[in-house]
Inverse folding.
């Protein structure tokens, strides 16, 4: 069974005086189909932990594994492929390419696929999946639009579809509703949880929103670098 294991992860940053400790022995585990939210004040290290789990940063100590694979033991190319295929990311800012259409933005992760995949029927399958995902997030009639032609909530829907294009084992979201009004934030929360259930993926979200976190199966809180179950 697909499983995420975070074991005793510590993160320190060097300073002139002594190392700045941000994460202190953080541990958690998720299995396929599970979701969890991590709460904590600004500067508590929520995003740092998420980025380590997502291989965008590395731990000072401790271990992260996904399906038994330690991504930090992989070579540079293998790590990039692992991140692209096994992980999906949704950020507070959608990070869409303004010059590309909505459909093209969803397909961006497939640009890193091996040449053999691009030359085969996989390219057509990817395009079909992108169109299906956009329909599922309510943007079936917006595929040819540019990001500037759609609303902030719609851009975040595109970002969610993009994160799911490779059917990742783990979907990570960093304050996905932070830039949205309350009604739109509720809709995006609904969508994330609905797609997570439908896809059978794991979902880990960091958020300031108690309302959003309350809807998740499991909740954690970062306090003074320690991760606690709430």
């Amino acid at each position: 069974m697909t499983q995420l294991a975070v074991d005793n992860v510590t993160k320190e940053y060097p300073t002139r005086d002594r190392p700045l400790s941000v994460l202190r022995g953080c541990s958690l585990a998720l299995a396929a189909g599970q979701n969890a939210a991590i709460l904590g004040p600004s500067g508590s290290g929520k995003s740092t932990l998420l980025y380590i789990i997502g291989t965008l940063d590395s731990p000072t100590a401790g271990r992260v594994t996904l399906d038994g694979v330690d991504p930090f033991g992989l070579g540079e190319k293998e790590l990039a492929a692992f991140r692209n295929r096994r992980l999906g990311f949704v950020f507070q800012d959608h990070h869409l390419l303004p010059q590309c259409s909505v459909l093209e933005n969803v397909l961006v992760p497939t640009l890193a696929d091996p040449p053999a995949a691009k030359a085969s029927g996989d390219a057509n399958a990817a395009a079909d999946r992108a169109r299906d995902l956009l329909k599922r997030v309510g943007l079936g009639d917006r595929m040819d639009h540019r990001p500037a032609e759609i609303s902030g909530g719609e851009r975040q829907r595109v970002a969610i579809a993009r994160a799911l294009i490779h059917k990742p084992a783990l979907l990570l979201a960093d304050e996905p509703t932070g830039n949205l009004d309350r009604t739109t934030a509720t809709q995006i929360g609904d969508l994330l949880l609905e797609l997570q259930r439908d896809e059978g993926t794991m979902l880990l979200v960091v958020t300031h929103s108690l309302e959003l976190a309350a809807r998740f199966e499991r909740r954690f809180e970062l306090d003074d670098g320690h991760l606690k179950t709430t």
Q: What stands out?
A: Residues 3-229 form a domain with the Rossmann fold fold (CATH 3.40.50.300). Helices lie at 46-53, 76-86, 102-106, 115-119, 122-136, 152-164, 182-199, 210-213. The chain has a mean pLDDT of 93. The two ends are 25 Å apart (CA to CA).
